[in-house]
Amino acid sequence: MAKYLFLVPVLLIWIYSIHVCSKAKLPFWHFLVGSVGLFIIMVIYVRPVLTEPLARAVAEISSIFGNITGVFQANFKYGVIFIGNLKEVISMQIDFECSGLLEMIVYISVIAFFPVYSIIERVMVGILGLVYILMTNVIRIIIICYVVHFFGPDSFNIAHTLIGRIFFYGASIVLYFLVFTKAQIKRQKVGGFGYNTDH
Amino acid sequence: MVITQIINDILHSAIFWAAWIIIPFIMEIIPAFGNIFLLIKKYFDKKNIPDIDYYPEISVIMPIYNSADTLEACIRSINDSNYPNNKIRVFLVNNQGQDNSFDIYAKCQNDFPEIRMQWMNAKQGKSRALNMALFNSEGKYIINIDSDGILEKSALKNLVHRFETDPDIDCMTGVILTRPDIIEKYRRGFERLVRKLEFVEYAQAFLAGRNYATETNSIYTLSGAFSAFRKSSVLKSQLYNTDTICEDTHITFQMKYLYGAKVGLCEDAIFFVDPIESIDKLYTQRQRWQRGSLEVSHMFLSKALKVRNMFTNASIRTLVYDHTFAFPRAIWYLAVLCLLFMGYSGKIILYSMGVIFLLYIIVGYLYYFFILKYLKNFPDIRKYYKKRWGSIPLLLLFNFVIFFIRFAGIINSIGTDSAWKTDNIHEERDKVDNVIQMEFKRINDIRARMERVFNNDEE
């Protein structure tokens, strides 16, 4: 529990650093200190609390699809998925890595301090992004379950480490492209400069 | 089945378990090997084209802005080049500089009488200066060079040779390298090391990066310091744009997207510039480059920002690598340390980073090897580059720092127009110091006031 004793001073130092960067009009340092700080704080303090509920939610949502097709089922209480095939039943535990929580934390950390958007926009785009990450993660789990169902337990590593991860990463890049790149390029200001700066 | 088993075994091993091997491998290492393949192919496809026996007239445009210190060396390098001096016409376009550049020009007219030189005065701005000279140039080819560098002896001839023998190409960038003689004047240690790394970085960016990009017509920007055009092509364009700080990238995009021109690298035309003056300068220079590329993307790609174009449009793909990836990457880099404190085993993270590091180094050495091949006609510079073999692993560290500077450029571009003055590191530190001092002063004032009130009460 020692880590909770540090929470208050850590928060104070972080908030004060953000305040200084903001007052000194240093947008980059404001973003960096804000985002990285928020990431670290969330990983240490929020991750342990949210991992299990999120893992259960992912298992539960995935199982809706699994139940319909009869390929896999989920145990909500333990966040475990049971994949049945002709010969056996394979169980798969949704852990921290599979929950997509880390990806969500990264996304929240970036969007919270991304100055292209107003505060309200950040909240809206933030929520939409989280739903997107949750749903793409569910699709990833479904893909893994299907591969394991059809190709057996030996295919689990390929399904999980390769196919699932590439899909999830690709989906994340689409999100980041639309939320960060497209928004910034569209709103980029051009012109109005003199030539007395360095060459 | 055996193959599946092997793949499974590899995936099962602790090293492959970590996410940060597969993704960088697919996104960076595999494309890098593809690029190396293009370099090999280009090298072996190269035919020996005989020398040209006719030298057309060329116009060299040189924007001047307080260039007194460097101008003479630059003009001398034109005079000393192996292109016939009577076929070169130089336009020196002063854009509101205040120093004695004109006197240097007048002296050069006496010292180098064979070269026809013309002084012009333009409104403020490099783009305006370039445009003014473009209107007035009569040469078959137009070559822009900065006044703070020097041409390699055969650079002009090699450019013209390429234009004359490859009718498809409309504009080219030369190779920019920093000057080894000046690098070696820096104090041994950190200062010189940074300049050596910058030298290797330039060599890699041009002789590898733009070299393979030429093969797929995906060069993102011609170098503003040394680029060349067919006059017939460039005069069809909208000329240099005066709104953006990156007029060189803008004209590259114009040529590519508006006129379907082929943009390439002339790998045997070298222009030497001074190494970076200071870390502060590096910090603002790279941010300015990043800002410029975002501005030009805004001007040309705003309507093309669709997900499917990530696969089909080379400029969108560059944007994804430069901008989209930068966000998760910045957080990840700094968060790796944090992850060591979590359930993740430090050993696995270190192994993973080690494998990626090793792969990057292998790629770096493959580039190094091919750059040596491409430098074979320049023995001195090749020798200097060859000695830099130890810099290849360190370049990763240099690129890591540059990544953060460019990322700063991304964030600092938001909500500001081109007039935004980028602070250097010292100015940023001063700003932070000022804020903290002001706040402590305010706290002290409040404390003093309370003390006074307290003391008055006591009295």
Q: Could you please describe the fold and organization of this structure?
A:
The complex is a heterodimer of chains A (199) and B (459). Chain A is mainly alpha-helical and 199 residues long. Chain A has two domains: 1-45; 50-186, no CATH class. Chain A has six helices and three strands. In chain A, strands 1-2-3 form a three-stranded antiparallel β-sheet. In chain A, helix 1 (2-23) crosses helix 2 (27-69), helix 2 (27-69) packs antiparallel against helix 4 (101-112) and helix 5 packs antiparallel against helix 6 (156-187). Chain A is globular and about 65 Å long. In chain B, strand 2 (88-94), helix 5 (101-111) and strand 3 (116-121) form a beta-alpha-beta unit. The model of chain B has no long low-confidence stretch (mean pLDDT 87). An eight-stranded mixed β-sheet of chain B has the order 3-2-1-4-7-6-8-5, sandwiched between helices. Chain B folds into three domains: 21-44 and 320-413; 54-301, Alpha-Beta Complex (Spore Coat Polysaccharide Biosynthesis Protein SpsA, Chain A), CATH 3.90.550; 423-459. Chain B is globular and about 95 Å long. Chain B is α/β, with parallel strands linked by helices. Chain B is 61% helix and 12% strand. Classes of the chains: A mainly alpha (199), B alpha/beta (459). Chains A and B meet through helix 1, helix 2, helix 4 and helix 6 of A and helix 1, helix 3, helix 12, helix 14 and helix 15 of B.
